[in-house]
Amino acid sequence: MPADSDITSFVESRGGVVRSARLTDAGIGRRAVEAAVRAGLLLRPRRGWVALPGARPLLVSAARFGVVITCRTQARVLGLWVHDPEGLPHVAVSENRTGHVGAKARIHWGRPLIPRHPDILEDPIENVLANIAECEPFEYALATWESALNKGLVDLASLARLPLRSAARRLLDEATPFADAGLETYLRPRLRWLRIPLWIQTWIHGHRVDALLGERLVLQIDGKHHVGAQRSEDIRHDAELLALGYHVIRISYQQMMFEWPAVQDRIMRAIAQGLHRAA
């Protein structure tokens, strides 16, 4: 009979939650598994699955309800930019599944782009982005897509080869891998109507700026927790840019998300004064 450490090490190597069949495949018999469950070394979230007591609760819940973590919930797990990380978890179920899922969650039905192996509890990134495209408003979805591209979790060429639906195709046409933070993504669709060149995450005299509109109008976007040393450094950098002949508009998270008309008015007034053009 395998040692308890062998069983728990095997389950840990599979993410802490695993199908019982995988234990059998590894030569760990049912009696050894049952003994580990009785000893409290393993839990049974659902028939056919075992989990370590310290496994991620999200994975344990997915196994318990027979679902796959997807959309904005899995995007958050992957460290992607998500507009609102709160709310019900988003999960996917098989296109052939019938009956009540049982979980308090936002359920995504239908055939996935990437087939899901019965063992997986977390959707592949392509499925995550496809669900985001259908679930979130365009701006929010675009920010998550660009976050995934920026982190190198997927690339535009491979996405383009997939049978994407119309909402995802629209995002594919718009998305770039250069936006570092989700808020920067909002600038392009919001300012496109100006027909003035807009560069995201560009370098000026050895410093990276969030956006450059035209030749001289710098847009800097502060996150929710933009304080302390970071704030002091940004003030210093703004002063350098001003000395070099740039005009800087700094936008807070609150302004970007909830006060955009006022921000747009500031930008329009700067453009009307020609502050986006080189002297």
From TrEMBL:
Gene3D superfamilies referenced in this protein's UniProt entry, alphabetically: VSR Endonuclease
Residue ranges constituting the AbiEi antitoxin N-terminal domain according to the UniProt record: 7-51
Domain annotation DUF559: ranges: 179-271
Origin superkingdom: Bacteria
InterPro entries the UniProt entry points to: AbiEi_N (IPR025159), DUF559 (IPR007569)
Protein name (database record): Type IV toxin-antitoxin system AbiEi family antitoxin domain-containing protein
Organism: Microbacterium istanbulense
